[in-house]
Design goal:
Helix content: 25-40%
Strand order of the largest sheet: 4-1-5-6-7-8-11-12
Largest sheet: 8 strands, mixed
Order of helices and strands: EEEHHEHEHEHEEEEEEEHEHEHEHH
Number of helices: 10
Number of strands: 16
Strand content: 15-25%
Radius of gyration: 20 Å
C-alpha cells in the first residue's frame, strides 16, 4: 500500500481562460484519473493535505506535513509515501522531511513543470514514476527523495536549476541516485548519510518535537552595507543563514555586523551562491570564510542557503542551546 498526499503545485493547476495564467484547479482524484496504470503499481490510499502553490508554503506548513507524513509511515500497512508539491519549494520541504523523519520507508516528492492545460503536461509521467519508486523495496533506507523527469534525486542535494524546463531538477555536483527506466527503478548510487541527532522527547517517528522558524536568509552582494545584518540582529531572529560568494566569502563591510550578530546570540551559517562545491576556510583576507568561521559562524558545506536555513530550524528545535545546535549542523554537513 502506498500513501499519496496531495499538497498542491503546478501538477494540480490549469490555465485560467480569462487571464491565461495557471491557477489551482484539480483535486487528488482528478489528477489520479489522468495517470494511466498508476493503480497497477500498488494499492493507493489518498489524502488531500492542501492545495498550495509552492511559494505559499511556509516552514510551519512543512512542519505540519512532516508530522502527517510520520503518522502515515507509522502504519504497518503503508510501504511508502508519495507527496505532490509545488516545484518552487519542493527542494526545501523535501529536505526538512529528510532531516526529521526516522522511517526507512521511501518518501518520494514529485511535482510538474507544466499544467494540465499544456500539451506537454508532465504530471502523469512524474507521478507514475514517483509511485514506482515509493513501491520499490530497494528504495528503502534512502531517506526522502525527489523524482522528476524519471530521475531519482536525494532531497539533500536536489536543486531546481531551470525555471520551467521539463528537466528542471538535478544534483549539480554528484548526479542522480538513479532513474526510472521503462518502468524499472534503477539505483546506481548508495544512500546518503542519514541524520543521527535527536531532540528531547521527540514526536513519534521524528527526531524533534518542534522547529525554530525565526531564521532569516540573506544573500551577500557587492558593495553590501551592514544595514540588513543589523536589522536582522535587532528583529528577534534566532539565526541567520548567509549566502556568501565562492568558498564562503563575504564583503568586509559586513563582518562587524556579523560579529555582533553572533555576539548577540544568533546562530549564523555560511553557504555559497554557487550551485556546486563546498564552503571552506580557504582564504584568509578580510571577510573570507576563515574570518567568518573564527567569529563564530558555521560553514554549511555544500548546502544551499535555503537548506542551511532549514537545518538551523531543526538544529535549534532539537538543541538545548546554540552551541549544541552548531554541533548538529557541523555533523550534518560533513
Amino acid at each position: 500500500m502506498i500513501g499519496v498526499l496531495f499538497t498542491g503545485g503546478t501538477i494540480a493547476m490549469r490555465l485560467d481562460p480569462s487571464s491565461g495564467a495557471a491557477i489551482p484547479a484539480l483535486g487528488a482524484e482528478d489528477i489520479l484519473a489522468l495517470v494511466p496504470g498508476i493503480r497497477d503499481v500498488a494499492d493507493l490510499e489518498i489524502e488531500e493535505f492542501s492545495r498550495l502553490p509552492g511559494p505559499h508554503v511556509t516552514p510551519e506548513q512543512m512542519w505540519r506535513l512532516a508530522r502527517r507524513a510520520a503518522a502515515w509511515l507509522d502504519r504497518p500497512d503503508i510501504d511508502g509515501l508519495v507527496i505532490t508539491h509545488g516545484t518552487d519549494t519542493i527542494e526545501e520541504t523535501s529536505y526538512l522531511l529528510d532531516l526529521v523523519l526516522t522511517s526507512d520507508k521511501p518518501v518520494v516528492f514529485v511535482g510538474a513543470m507544466r499544467t494540465v492545460s499544456d500539451a506537454s503536461w508532465d504530471g502523469p509521467a512524474n507521478l507514475l514514476a514517483a509511485a514506482r519508486v515509493a513501491a520499490a523495496p530497494e528504495a528503502r533506507g534512502y531517506g526522502v527523495l525527489v523524482v522528476m523527469d524519471e530521475t531519482i534525486l536525494p532531497a539533500r542535494e536536489a536543486r531546481k536549476v531551470h525555471t520551467e524546463a521539463s528537466g528542471s531538477f538535478g544534483t549539480p555536483e554528484f548526479g542522480p541516485l538513479g532513474v526510472v527506466d521503462a518502468g524499472h527503478v534503477t539505483l546506481r548510487r548508495g544512500p546518503l548519510k542519514r541524520p543521527t541527532f535527536f531532540g528531547a522527547d521527540p514526536e513519534p517517528g521524528m527526531r524533534v518535537r518542534q522547529i525554530e522558524t525565526r531564521i532569516e536568509l540573506l544573500q551577500a552582494y557587492t558593495g553590501m552595507s551592514d544595514a540588513l545584518v543589523r536589522a536582522i540582529t535587532g528583529s528577534g531572529a534566532r539565526g541567520l543563514a548567509l549566502i556568501a560568494f565562492g568558498r564562503g566569502n563575504a564583503p568586509p563591510s559586513s563582518v562587524p555586523a556579523l560579529r555582533e550578530a553572533v555576539d548577540a546570540g544568533l546562530l549564523v551559517t555560511v553557504s555559497s551562491r554557487s550551485i556546486a562545491g563546498r564552503v571552506k576556510p580557504r582564504y584568509g583576507y578580510a571577510g573570507a570564510g576563515l574570518e567568518l568561521m573564527k567569529l563564530g559562524a558555521v560553514l554549511a558545506g555544500d548546502l544551499s542557503g535555503a537548506k542551511a536555513r532549514l537545518l538551523q530550524m531543526v538544529a535549534l528545535g532539537a538543541a538545548q542551546d546554540r552551541d549544541a545546535a552548531r554541533e548538529i549542523i557541523r555533523a550534518a554537513v560533513v
